[in-house]
Amino acid sequence: MSSRGFTKIEILIVAILIVLVLAADFFVISYLNSKQQDVQVMSEISRLRSGLEAYLLKNNYYPVSLEPLVLNSELNSSEKLCVEGFEKFSFQCAQEILNPVPNLYLTKGNSYIYKSTDNNKNYQLEFTLLSDFPAQNLKKGKNCATNSQIISQPCF
After folding, report:
1. Which domain holds residue 31?
2. Residue 2 falls inside a structural domain
3. Run of H or E including 86
4. Residue 2: per-residue pLDDT
């Protein structure tokens, strides 16, 4: 008796292998997307820190924010950084430092939270990573950038 097709077992095995390959691809792509987002977040944190240092050079203190302030938010007037401080896009700055305040992943729920400390001589800038950054000793989750360092713990 000669068979001219595949058996049900052979078809089932091929289907299982295809599902396994697709699942592995999904997890690899998810991991790479989270790494890409984290690299962008670290780049934006670097830009924010540079902008805050430029503000310090102009004013001799960091932008005043006694309470934690979500950056790049129209609601709390933190869409751009001027020599006057964080402002709305519509505000006419004497000089712009960062326009806009960077946050590529704002629509995906990413936020940077800023607060001045020590009578505006220092600041804390909280951000979230989706994966670990072992080279910089940063872990997945909330991290804190200050004017002197970046540490793997929440600011607030």
Report:
1. 8-151
2. no
3. strand 85-87
4. 57
The domain tally of the chain equals 1
**Residue 129 included in any domain:** yes
CA–CA distances in Å: residue 90 to residues 11, 79, 82, 100, 101? 63, 9, 12, 11, 14
End-to-end CA distance of the chain: 75
Residue keyed to tokens 């289907």: 15
Token pair for residue 83?
């020599």
What's the pLDDT score for residue 44? 96
Per run of 10 residues, the mean pLDDT along the chain (length 156 residues) is: 77 93 85 86 96 97 96 88 95 95 87 96 97 91 97 96
DSSP structure class, residue 135:
G
